């Protein structure tokens, strides 16, 4: 990074890097769109079926690919260029959002189509999220800024989880879920442009077998040797199981205008999930 910029506040020092500024801007737009689409999909599911079970199935379809695919994609991401994978995932996400918009705006959306596209979104997220995590260490060109990169990434995610559903609530009330999907699809143009401008140094490739063994060993060592790491691993998992899924069912008991209120309340409840423990240098223990 060639030194941290003296003109930036300390808590924004990671933005002194051009690559991270581009990534940060793209991530803000991408995550906002992702949460807007998620909220609109839940509303659309109930609008199509008037069935809480269908709403639950939409959530299931969008999350189950992450559960089963993300661990394998995480190993694969360590084997290849994470930036290229993020570009690929964002391109696929744009196509998926565009498909949601086309089917909805033309009146051809059905519950099976919605479930299939939500499952595709889950598959894309299973690829995108590990790839983004792998980029974290490459984006922190100065080791001293690594903890700030991690903190800003977490802040961005949680703010998007707070603001995205609120914007979606207003948009659904004004124009309907199809327009929300279209806005999300168009926003990916800016995201892909930002990612295309990024230039990162190439990393040394390792064999897939070596990476898999190393990853499994590191996870076991981190969780077993550090009680604090164990706690911050278990707590977010419990939040994901018991807090986030029930939020989907606020869709079936509110109007579009009040939808944003219930989603904001849920976002406040889930935005406090802790980050993994790090040493003073910013690297995992």
List keywords for this structure.
Growth Hormone, Chain: A; mainly alpha; 10 helices; 285 residues; single chain; disordered N terminus; disordered C terminus
Total number of beta strands: 0
Principal-axes shape call: globular
The domain count comes to: 2
Q: What proportion of the residues form beta strands (DSSP E)?
A: under 5%
Q: Going by CATH, what is the homologous superfamily of the largest domain?
A: MFS general substrate transporter like domains
CATH uppermost class of the largest domain = Mainly Alpha
What share of residues is helical?
Answer: over 70%
Please explain how this structure is put together.
- With 285 residues, the protein is mainly alpha-helical.
- It folds into two domains: 14-205 and 243-270, Growth Hormone, Chain: A, CATH 1.20.1250.20; 208-241, no CATH class.
- It contains ten helices and no strands.
- Helix 1 runs antiparallel to helix 4, helix 2 (52-77) packs parallel to helix 4 (111-139) and helix 5 (146-175) runs antiparallel to helix 6 (177-197).
- The radius of gyration is 19 Å and the shape is globular.
- Residues 1-5, 207-213 and 248-285 have low confidence and may be disordered.
């Amino acid at each position: 990074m060639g030194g941290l910029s003296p003109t930036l506040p300390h808590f924004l020092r990671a933005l002194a890097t051009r690559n991270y500024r581009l990534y940060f801007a793209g991530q803000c737009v991408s995550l906002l769109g992702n949460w807007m689409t998620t909220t609109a999909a839940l509303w659309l599911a109930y609008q199509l079926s008037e069935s809480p079970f269908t709403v639950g199935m939409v959530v299931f379809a969008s999350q189950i690919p992450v559960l089963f695919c993300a661990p394998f994609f995480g190993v694969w991401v360590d084997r290849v260029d994470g930036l290229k994978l993020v570009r690929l995932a964002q391109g696929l996400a744009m196509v998926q959002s565009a498909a949601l918009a086309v089917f909805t705006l033309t009146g051809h959306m059905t519950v099976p189509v919605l479930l299939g596209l939500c499952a595709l979104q889950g598959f894309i997220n299973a690829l995108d999220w590990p790839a983004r995590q792998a980029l974290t260490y490459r984006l922190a060109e100065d080791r001293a800024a690594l903890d700030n990169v991690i903190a800003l990434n977490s802040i961005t995610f949680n703010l998007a989880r707070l603001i995205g559903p609120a914007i979606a609530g207003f948009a659904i009330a004004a124009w309907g879920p199809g327009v929300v999907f279209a806005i999300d699809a168009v926003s990916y143009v800016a995201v892909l442009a930002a990612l295309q401008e990024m230039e990162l140094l190439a990393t040394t490739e390792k064999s897939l077998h070596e990476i898999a063994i190393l990853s499994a060993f590191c996870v076991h060592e981190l969780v077993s040797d550090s009680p604090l790491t164990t706690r911050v691993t278990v707590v977010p998992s419990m939040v994901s199981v018991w807090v986030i899924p029930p939020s989907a069912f606020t869709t079936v008991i509110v109007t579009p205008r009040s939808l944003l209120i219930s989603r904001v309340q849920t976002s406040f409840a889930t935005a406090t999930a802790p980050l993994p423990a790090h040493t003073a240098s910013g690297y995992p223990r």
